[in-house]
TrEMBL record, chain A:
Lineage: Bacteria, Bacillati, Actinomycetota, Actinomycetes, Geodermatophilales
Organism of derivation: Geodermatophilus sabuli
Protein name per UniProt: Enoyl-CoA hydratase/isomerase family protein
GO molecular function, one term: isomerase activity
Pfam family membership, one: ECH_1
InterPro entries membership: ClpP/crotonase-like_dom_sf, Enoyl-CoA_hyd/isom_CS, Enoyl-CoA_hydra/iso, Enoyl-CoA_Hydratase/Isomerase
Length: 232, 285
């Protein structure tokens, strides 16, 4: 995991984010810490999550090895209020995900938790709800509307980039060779906003998300986990 | 010497069951002052009390629906509010009171338009910025010409305030964030695709008349019943809470601290006038 900082943008680069889908606790912990560090950095306005490999979060083989090592540790590193997803969702900075290739499982949860997403035309988005109990359905329904979120969750469909863009999961869709430049230009636009303005508007947004049950949905994750993993 | 023409006009045609609220300040791209907001609300009171009116069309004279708050009046509104002139800079309470009274509170323009008992149709042309954006969001139906652009440029200067519940409900969460942080106006076709605009037309006046005619054919009880059902949904969606939060955050954002390398719009506006600051902020972006 590599973190860098340039003109208001803190970038976290990894090969891909699939270790989160495999419940790699060290990876989740490191990613959370990297986000927290950028959240608290006064020179940072944008937190950018980027995969340097061909896929943002490729699918892995499902199996017992992909389950977390017990609910308390899972809650600490994945589902709880101080874990990676809520740290991103309630960040005081603008979180941007840059997606190329396949985006499945936890990768799609990262996209849902981020503020803005730039995606390459080759990208695809798998529904996280069948395998990731901490995936937040309230965020999905606010993002793509209730009927589409239900269909995505229930059919386990993989959305092509164009469809993900059309329904609002992706903000900007670009040819693969232009994704980086589009992300850079977007980050530059965001950085024109004063830091105080970004922080206060993120807090205003949090109040609205709370009102729409996003926090309560995160709190429901242990119940979904017990259903999925049989109380392990 | 005759009475000056009103800057917000009310035209009522009872035969067609239609009222028009028209912004007549084309030379300032229909920038709204507090007085205009108050007049707008008064007109809404009149049409709400007129049983012959079923539809209210909101439009602007000239090429733009509205460029937003009048920048001169935006600062003055804080100074004129109770506690606003006690010190050099208006107090926080003055900012809160002004924002609540004129814009976000129960008697403010946005809340009043959102809770109008008649069908409201906004005809969006040219710049639909800030107030223009919220007139669009708070009305029931929106007809836009292809040249319409939707944004809140002030957000780039100070941060995003305003109601977010309504914006999120209308265009979706990530689209709302795109409007908040992206800083680029949406074209009419983007706004149509995202759900902010109901109909695109190269002849928005005719398309609006068709919508108005269709809505005017609905029986009065049907319209008001549906509107009250919408009000109940808005309450459940937390829009009232969101408007209150908008007041608080908007007041705070009028008084923020800028980092040394950040463009200080508020200082520029105070030192050099709002027009110069606006021009600079746009070239800055």
């Amino acid at each position: 995991m590599n973190t860098s900082l340039a003109v208001g943008v803190g970038t976290i680069e990894v090969d891909d984010f699939s270790p989160l889908s495999r419940y790699d606790h060290d990876f989740a912990h490191d990613l959370r810490d990297a986000v927290l560090e950028l959240n608290d950095h006064d020179d940072v306005k944008v937190v950018l999550l980027r995969a340097t490999g061909p896929d943002f979060a490729p699918p892995g083989a499902a199996g017992d090895q992909d389950r977390p090592s017990g609910l308390p540790a899972w809650r600490r590193d994945f589902a709880g209020s101080a874990a990676i997803y809520q740290t991103l969702c309630f960040s005081k900075k603008v979180v941007v995900t840059e997606v190329q290739g396949r985006c499945t499982g936890a990768g799609t949860v990262l996209v849902l938790c981020s503020d803005l997403t730039v995606a390459g035309e080759d990208s695809t988005f798998g529904s996280p709800f069948a395998a990731i109990p901490e995936a937040n359905f309230a965020l999905a329904s606010l993002t793509m509307r209730l009927n589409r979120a239900k269909a995505w969750a229930l059919t386990d469909d993989v959305l092509p980039a164009e469809q993900a863009h059309a329904i609002g999961l992706v903000n900007f869709l670009e040819p693969v060779d232009q994704v980086w430049s589009r992300t850079a230009s977007l980050a530059q636009d965001v950085c024109r906003m004063p830091l105080d303005g970004i922080t206060m508007s993120k807090m205003l947004l949090q109040a609205v998300l709370d009102g729409h049950g996003v926090g309560r949905e995160f709190d429901m994750a242990p119940h979904y986990a017990r259903d999925l993993w049989g109380g392990k | 010497m005759g009475t000056p023409a009103p800057l917000v006009d009310l035209l009522i045609d009872r035969e067609s069951h239609r009222a028009d609220i028209v912004l007549r300040r084309a030379e300032r791209r229909n920038a709204l002052t507090r007085t205009m907001a108050r007049d707008f609300v008064r007109h809404l009171d009149v049409v709400d009390g007129d049983d012959e009116v079923k539809v209210v069309v909101i439009r602007g004279e000239g090429e733009h629906l509205s460029s937003g708050w009048d920048p001169d009046d935006a600062w003055q509104q804080y100074q004129d509010a109770p506690g606003g002139a006690v010190r050099k800079h208006p107090s926080q309470r003055a900012r809160l009171i002004a924002l609540d009274d004129y814009w976000w509170g129960p008697d403010g323009l946005y809340s009043r338009l959102l809770h109008c008992r008649k069908v409201t149709i906004t005809q969006a042309v040219g710049d639909c910025f800030e107030t223009g954006l919220y007139l669009t969001l708070c009305s029931d139906l929106v007809v836009a010409s292809p040249d319409a652009r939707f944004a809140c440029p002030r957000w780039q200067n100070v941060g995003a305030d305003g109601d977010l519940s309504l914006l999120i409900a209308t265009v979706g969460l990530k689209r709302a964030k795109e409007m908040m942080y992206g800083g680029r106006p949406w074209s009419a076709s983007d706004a149509h695709r995202y759900g902010l605009v109901d109909k695109l037309s190269i002849d928005p006046a005719t398309a609006t008349a068709e919508f108005a005619g269709m809505c005017a054919s609905i029986m009065r009880d049907g319209i008001v019943t549906e509107k009250y059902a919408v009000f109940a949904s808005l309450a459940k969606m937390g829009v009232t809470h969101s408007f209150a939060a908008a007041t608080v955050v908007s007041a705070s954002l009028s008084n923020i601290h800028f980092q040394p390398d950040e463009y200080n719009f508020l200082k520029d506006a105070r030192d050099n006038g709002t027009d110069a600051a606006l021009a600079r902020s746009r070239s800055h972006s």
